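Query structure, 385 tokens:
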């Protein structure tokens, strides 16, 4: 009876996480994998043992790392090779294990070596090779397979990545521009896990957009959500900077940053994390244009950015980037009111199409392709006589 009472009190002390913290999104999983052992050969008859099975990671659009987490407390072991015997001189190879993982996964070994990346459906990476079966070269003794601790690190693959400080309105924009339903509130850090939305156009064109957790100063050295956010930026084709027209202040202890300073800080954080990110095309959207005085601030920010090389020396050194981003477009929006959101939607499409044409000049305009496909369907349809 005493034992049952202790259990009841222990259950009461267990704190159940809040609903918004119990996210189904996982972007990193650690697994223990082991290749199968090769079968023993038969020296008397020259029999060969079967090869040990291998452990593979295979790309699948329908997979997610949440399903892989069930293996975290286990060793994933491939089948062992069959021993050679009188009635079967050559043993069968061991069975392979194929783990379905989502697209965008990079596989790391325990020492940090990259075993491979999976970007397309059907891409395969061997994470643990099976041991060779017994043969004359190894005195007919089968060898053990490889044993590794591996880490599956997911980097979201999206056409557009939203980059901005907390409370800039990234989630509000994602909700206004796509069918996603992110958590929205008027305080910082409402987004604690990446959200992905699909922008749908009238001609059925679809563009994916990722809303990632808000940056703070020092994210490049993993302060705040740090690398958990920045690693997802690497797989996007285009970056969309979102800045609050009134600027940003993390807390009363922190310095108040103006709209222009927040843009330069975002530039600096990306530069310090990976300078290659600055080579991506970037569009700047200044949000909350429905506030009083927003038009004047927007005009000054736009003018400053067009003459940034002349005023960069006046910017405080701690937020001054060495390599400045050249924004392809600067647009003012109000994600809350929906003002200019449709213009931004069309602008994003145009820039992605321009980028696609540079890499593949033979690409067909989506609206023309839709008309062409509908014409083919009509021609193949039943004819009334």
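Result returned for the query:
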């Amino acid at each position: 009876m005493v034992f049952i009472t202790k259990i009841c009190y222990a259950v009461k002390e267990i704190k159940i996480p809040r609903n918004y913290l119990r996210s189904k999104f996982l972007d990193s999983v650690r697994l223990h994998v082991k290749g199968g052992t090769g079968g023993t050969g038969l020296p008397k008859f020259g029999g060969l043992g079967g090869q040990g099975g291998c452990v593979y990671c295979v790309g699948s659009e329908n997979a997610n790392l949440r399903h892989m987490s069930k293996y975290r407390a286990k060793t994933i072991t491939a089948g062992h090779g069959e021993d050679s015997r009188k009635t079967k001189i050559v043993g069968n190879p061991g069975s392979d294990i194929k783990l379905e993982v989502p697209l965008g996964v990079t596989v790391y070994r325990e020492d940090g070596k990259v075993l491979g990346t999976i970007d397309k459906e059907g891409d395969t990476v061997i994470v643990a090779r099976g041991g060779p079966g017994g043969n004359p070269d190894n005195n007919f003794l089968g060898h053990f397979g490889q044993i590794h601790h591996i880490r599956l690190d997911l980097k979201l693959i999206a056409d557009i990545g939203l980059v901005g400080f907390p409370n800039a309105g990234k989630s509000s924009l994602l909700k206004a521009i796509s069918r996603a339903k992110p958590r929205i509130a008027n305080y910082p850090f409402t987004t604690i896990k990446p959200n992905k939305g699909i922008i749908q156009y009238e001609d059925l064109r679809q563009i994916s957009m990722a809303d990632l957790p808000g940056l703070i100063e020092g994210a490049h050295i993993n302060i705040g959500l740090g690398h958990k956010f920045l690693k997802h930026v690497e797989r996007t084709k285009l970056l969309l900077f979102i800045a609050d027209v009134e600027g940003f202040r993390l807390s009363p202890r922190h310095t108040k940053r103006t709209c222009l300073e927040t843009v330069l800080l975002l530039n600096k954080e990306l530069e310090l994390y990976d300078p290659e990110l600055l080579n991506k095309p970037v569009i700047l959207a200044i949000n909350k244009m429905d506030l009083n005085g927003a038009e004047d601030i927007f005009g000054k920010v736009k003018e400053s950015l067009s003459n940034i090389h002349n005023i960069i020396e006046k910017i405080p050194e701690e937020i001054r980037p060495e390599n400045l981003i050249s924004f392809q477009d600067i647009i003012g929006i109000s994600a809350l009111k929906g003002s200019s959101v449709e213009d931004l939607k069309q602008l994003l499409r145009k820039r992605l199409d321009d980028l696609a044409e540079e890499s593949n000049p033979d690409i067909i305009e989506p609206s023309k392709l839709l008309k062409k496909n509908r014409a083919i369907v009509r021609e193949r349809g039943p004819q009334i006589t």
